[in-house]
Structure formats: structure tokens, C-alpha cells
Specification:
Blueprint (H helix, E strand, L loop, with lengths): L16 H4 L5 H18 L2 E3 L6 H7 L5 H8 L1 H4 L11 E3 L1 H17 L29 E3 L6 E3 L4 E8 L5 E7 L4 E7 L1 E2 L6 E2 L4 E4 L11 E6 L7 E2 L1 H7 L5
Antiparallel strand pairs: 1-2, 3-11, 4-10, 5-6, 5-9, 6-7, 7-11, 8-10, 11-12
Helix pairs in contact: 2-6, 3-4
The structure holds zinc ion.
Length: 245
């Protein structure tokens, strides 16, 4: 590991109690999305056939799961035996479409779940011993990237702090639904502010070399509390959530 991109003896510090009281569970974050899908679904329960409509056109426009065949099957009593003959004014049930939308929304909020904080290979690994760290070992993992590289939230959550983190320079700390916190340090630019909800992959700032560093890199931590010293292996954590790293 070259000397650049490492820390010099960062001082132990806390992330601020006041910020930590901002609590948001995954459910609270997912609700607005599901709510939006539900609202859409509620208004799409029935569809009134217009001149020029075909079942496939409607199925596509209304995002009916199973396509026109399903739409036809669900509305055979209205349409009759010929799927090619639908008449303006006929009311079609889009019940399954509504369901499909809600399901898709829920699926995307639960599977999109975790991403890498930056597109770069891992540099200085977690727990590497060294006198340059106040705890005697590296409390996060480093990704050596040039200043200005987009940094992404690894999962949905709420920003509990975004600002000067002392030795960490400009940093962002995000609380996630599972109670863990992710920290992104030495940023050149902050793209979020405290209290803001983010999704997995939301750009939260740009990498940099602020704070106590010898070169630009992203210092990334996962913690079980907002406080320094409650770190866990960030790479293992991401891998446990399906991230290839
Ligand atoms: Zn580091």
C-alpha cells in the first residue's frame, strides 16, 4: 500500500448525540414508495375502454402483469368470447395490475438494498494494524479514488450528520433500517444534509482529501452505534447483504 491515501493518526471523536436521535426505520422509508404505488393502483382498479383500444395496448399502458391474456381472462365476462372485440365504454378490471404494481414497488425497495459506496477496488483493509490509527487498527476500509469521484449511500437510510468530522474531514453518516450506521469520510463535497432520506445508490457527495489524510480516498465504516469505536467489518457487512466486493 503506498503512503498516499492513508490516514495520519485520526483523533477519536464522536458523531454527535443530537444527530443520533434522528431515527427512521426501514418501514418508514419504504412507506412513501408503497403508498405512492398504492395510490396509483387505487385509481387504476377499472379501465374504461376508449375508441381504438386493444387489450394488448391497455395491458401495456396499465402495466398489467401477465399481459393482455391475463387482462382478457380477468374480464372475459365483460368482453365475451372474442378477445379482439372490445367496445368503447366497457369497464375492465385491472385488479391484478394494481396488485402487480404494489408488489413491484415492494420488491424494488427490498432487493435494491445494498451497493458499494464507490466503484473502486478496496485499498487499505479493515483492521489493518498500524500506529497511524488512534485505535491501533484501521476502523474502516479505504477505497483509493481521485478527488471528485461520486460516493453513494450503500443502503437506504437517513442522514444523521453531514459536515465536518474533524480528522475525518467532510463526512456523511447514515443510519440504516437494521440499526447500523455507515460513514463516508474525507469528502471534497457534501451532497446531502442531516435528516435527509436516501436510497441505496443515492449520491451523497464527492470523494476528496479533507481531514487527516495523506491523499484522496474514501474512508468507509460500518458501525453499530453513531460513535467511533463501534465499528464492524464493512466489507463483510456489505457481502452479507449481497454486494460483490
Ligand atoms: Zn481509512
Amino acid at each position: 500500500m503506498p503512503a498516499q491515501g492513508k490516514h495520519r493518526r485520526p483523533k477519536s471523536h464522536r458523531l454527535g448525540r443530537a444527530a443520533a436521535v434522528v431515527t427512521v426505520g426501514g418501514a418508514a422509508l419504504a412507506l412513501p414508495l408503497i403508498g405512492a404505488g398504492g395510490a396509483q393502483a387505487a385509481t387504476a382498479q377499472t379501465y374504461t375502454v376508449k375508441a381504438g383500444d386493444t387489450l394488448s395496448k391497455i395491458a401495456k399502458a396499465e402495466n398489467v402483469e401477465g399481459g393482455w391474456k391475463k387482462l382478457y381472462a380477468d374480464n372475459k365476462s365483460v368482453i365475451g368470447s372474442d378477445a379482439g372485440l372490445i367496445k368503447p365504454g366497457e369497464k375492465l378490471t385491472l385488479g391484478s395490475a394494481a396488485k402487480a404494481r404494489t408488489t413491484a414497488t415492494q420488491a424494488s425497495t427490498s432487493t435494491a438494498a445494498y451497493v458499494k459506496p464507490v466503484d473502486a477496488p478496496e485499498g487499505t483493509p479493515y483492521h489493518q494494524n498500524g500506529s497511524m490509527w488512534s485505535s491501533g487498527y484501521h476502523t474502516g476500509t479505504d477505497f483509493v479514488v481521485p478527488t471528485g469521484t461520486p460516493i453513494k449511500a450503500v443502503a437506504a437510510g437517513t442522514v444523521v450528520s453531514a459536515g465536518d468530522g474533524g480528522a475525518y474531514g467532510n463526512q456523511v453518516v447514515i443510519q440504516h433500517a437494521d440499526g447500523h450506521y455507515s460513514q463516508y469520510a474525507h469528502l471534497s463535497q457534501l451532497g446531502v444534509s442531516a435528516g435527509q432520506a436516501v436510497s441505496a445508490g443515492t449520491q451523497i457527495g464527492l470523494s476528496g482529501a479533507t481531514g487527516n489524510v495523506t491523499g484522496p480516498h474514501l474512508h468507509f465504516e460500518i458501525r453499530t452505534t453513531p460513535d467511533y469505536g463501534s465499528d464492524v467489518d464493512p466489507v463483510a457487512y456489505l457481502r452479507a447483504h449481497g454486494v460483490s466486493i
